[in-house]
Amino acid sequence: NMAGTTSTVNRVGGARRVATVRPARGGRSIGQRHHAVRSQTDVDVMMDELKSFLYDDLPHLFDDVGIDTGKYNDTIAFRDPITSYDSISGYLFNIAMLRNVFDPEFILHDVKRTGDLQLTTRWTMNMRLAIPNPLASAGVWDPRLTFTGTSIMDVDEQSGKFISHVDTWDSLDDSSYFSLPAVAELGAQVFSLGAAPKDLWTPPYTLHRRFANGLEVRAYDDVVAAETSYTLEPARGNDAAQDDGKVGGVNVSGNAGGGAQGVSAFRSLAGYIFGANAASDKMAMTVPVSSGANARVAGGDTKMQFYLPLDNASDAPSPNESSVNVVNVAGGVYAARAFRGEASADVVLAEMEQLLRLCEQNRLVTKGGSDAVELLAYNGPGTAKALRRYEVRVPLDGFELP
């Protein structure tokens, strides 16, 4: 440790994160008691009350109610990897700035007592530009910034107010203020091209971790899907990208199904939601379209799924085509990673291997290995190849949610 500092260590997915925290004004060490102002019993009661306060208050961080500033010292030291302020007015300015530029969503997962006079929150922050953006409707540029991390909040024993608030990001090994990795992480998210369609329904999930290199841990709800099974031949080396691009003169690479068999599966599911069902109901298209990633590379039996915004499979009309089934898909925790461009077999193989490698590096235990990896496609064939969004995801075993 540097002289006059303390370090808070927390473990995220097995990885060690160290946040160096400077003492508050007056030289006292953060989170530690040097002068007994209250009895230990009184301190415990105070910290329990502050913990409850944060559970009630932080969900209002970006709404019209706002936070209750009465629990924050006027000279609170606020720092995250990009911004730094030394007053409650600076902290409030930062909140207002984010509200004006973005449409922020703050999700509080947990509050824990991590020191005698210290609380640590775990959270997810999602942000999307709130200013007019003509490039968004064209699917060219619609950045969605996502950060997960912790806030280490220290309390003055005498006043019972927060005197220090230090944010760490899971995507950084070093969350020091304005480090090059922090700037690079922010820039990579801001200047990411392409976008998932905004007007199409997507199965909801809660993001719990975003690590370096874009690896995310998500908790998905139960969902309903229309699915069909099919068999793929192994990809043919360097010809795989060309084979995936067109079948019978039809550009199908957007559905990421894989060759002629993928086209047939896609058309069967599209037919179902567009009226080939017992009720002749026409349903809206949804994203993503899911298919087996490993089968796209190595061949074999797989299935394709369209997700439906229904509570139960029994709510869906029966398919006219016998190869189509409507099923309930149990929710779960997944590791996922996005990429853009094409979903040729060689690209999918590289992305699948990278996903599994990053899971291992972050000590995330996967279920099923490469055979369980799904390929998710978000854009249709009308989207320029460079702007198409894909994801690979794999179920996790033993990941503890807050």
Summarize the structure.
With 402 residues, the chain is α+β, with helices and mostly antiparallel strands. It is built from eight helices and 19 strands.
What does this structure look like?
This protein is α+β, with helices and mostly antiparallel strands. The chain has 8 helices and 19 strands. It has a 9-stranded antiparallel sheet with strand order 9-10-17-19-18-14-15-11-16. A 6-stranded mixed sheet has the order 4-3-8-7-6-5. A two-stranded antiparallel ribbon has the order 1-2. β7 and β8 form a beta hairpin. The chain is elongated, with a radius of gyration of 24 Å. The N terminus is likely disordered.
List keywords for this structure.
23% helix, 402 residues, six-stranded mixed β-sheet, 8 helices, 19 strands, alpha+beta, disordered N terminus
Cα-based radius of gyration, to the nearest Å:
24 Å
Mean pLDDT level: 86
How far apart are the first and last residues' alpha carbons, in Å?
30 Å
Counted by DSSP, the helix tally is: 8
Give the strand line-up of the largest sheet.
9-10-17-19-18-14-15-11-16
The shape, in one word, is elongated
Note the run of SSEs as H and E: EEHEEHEEHEEHEEEHEEHEHEEEHEE
What is the makeup of the main sheet? 9 strands, antiparallel
Write the layout of secondary structure elements.
Blueprint: E1 6-12, E2 15-21, H1 40-57, E3 72-79, E4 84-85, H2 88-101, E5 105-115, E6 118-128, H3 134-137, E7 144-155, E8 162-169, H4 180-190, E9 205-210, E10 216-220, E11 223-232, H5 240-245, E12 246-247, E13 250-251, H6 259-273, E14 289-292, H7 293-298, E15 300-308, E16 324-329, E17 332-340, H8 345-361, E18 374-377, E19 389-395
Parallel strand pairs: 3-8
Antiparallel strand pairs: 1-2, 3-4, 5-6, 6-7, 7-8, 9-10, 10-17, 11-15, 11-16, 12-13, 14-15, 14-18, 17-19, 18-19
